[in-house]
Amino acid sequence: xxxxxxxxxxxxxxxxxxxxxxxxxxxxxxxxxxxxxxxxxxxxxxxxxxxxxxxxxxxxxxxxxxxxxxxxxxxxxxxxxxxxxxxxxxxxxxxxxxxxxxxxxxxxxxxxxxxxxxxxxxxxxxxxxxxxxxxxxxxxxxxxxxxxxxxxxxxxxxxxxxxxxxxxxxxxxxxxxxxxxxxxxxxxxxxxxxxxxxxxxxxxxxxxxxxxxxxxxxxxxxxxxxxxxxxxxxxxxxxxxxxxxxxxxxxxxxxxxxxxxxxxxxxxxxxxxxxxxxxxxxxxxxxxxxxxxxxxxxxxxxxxxxxxxxxxxxxxxxxxxxxxxxxxxxxxxxxxxxxxxxxxxxxxxxxxxxxxxxxxxxxxxxxxxxxxxxxxxxxxxxxx
Length: 384
Fold this sequence. Notes:
The protein is α/β, with parallel strands linked by helices. It has helices at 3-15, 46-55, 62-71, 86-95, 167-185, 204-215, 235-243, 259-265, 274-288, 306-316, 341-353, and strands at residues 20-22, 27-29, 33-34, 39-40, 96-97, 102-108, 114-119, 125-132, 137-140, 144-145, 163-164, 191-194, 227-231, 249-253, 292-297, 321-326, 357-361. A ten-stranded mixed β-sheet has the order 6-7-8-9-12-13-14-15-16-17, covered by helices on one side. It has a three-stranded antiparallel β-sheet with strand order 1-2-3, with no helix packed on it. Strands 4-5 form a two-stranded parallel ribbon. Helix 5 (167-185) crosses helix 6 (204-215), helix 7 packs parallel to helix 9 and helix 10 (306-316) packs parallel to helix 11 (341-353). The chain is elongated.
């Protein structure tokens, strides 16, 4: 090879991409090592954490200690895990991270309701609500950032769905609202409703995992019967709840008991008709024996007549249910109005005369946009 050919060959080799070799935990190039992002330890199972400790020459029981700190004591830093040695805490910090939810804003209504803005690790925002009452402290929590359903009366329905919340992000909302309840009312949470932002059945696996973390003796230890998961009505997922034998309560956001009206306000009904929902709910009840709650907002001059009440009664006849009649809470995006008080009373009286258990729910937190159907992030999500 002559001198010119050698120079050409050398230039060609220099211009080639750098050699990359993927080792177990590190991407190695010819002049640098790039460490991959740390994994959130709360995405790992107890068994996975046990395997990690064994691989690093530690006792497997250390995983149970870590798991208890994460889910029973709700710590968000390895530094708080004081029954682990400093070297073990350093080992965890080397390989893992904890991505906690933070409170970004808190608003207190004149009726005592507290709306909480939650900042997620990636900058996205969701909202939750503490609803105090004489006999209970209820947390209303979110399951998604935004929502893919487009219910015409719900502020969240006018937002884009950004992503699902993971189980830890749902769990964190409960922990933080519980702390707020204790701070403001010196009482712990007694009830949890998945009625915030998002459709829980479109985040099925993460919602179920979050209920497990909340109810497990290794987690928060709340009773399953203190939890209600609400859905706009996705028939196949309601059946799956029955197959999975869930212990928590189920609520259906119904709002109209004929398909024509329900299609107008809840487009999900076009693919999940009342007949399909009726069959799914009957299946759910056969599998779980859990009574279902129907949520029914009474809109002025839309679904507030005795004919509407009669249609609701016939829909209720298929299984043991109770009906929550809910006041409509205005949102800027829609022109619905709450039904007149006398019509709400007549509506409820009709159902009660037919033997249906009815509760009329009054709005809470309306002045801070914390009432049912009003949750929507005013501040733009960082990643939107």
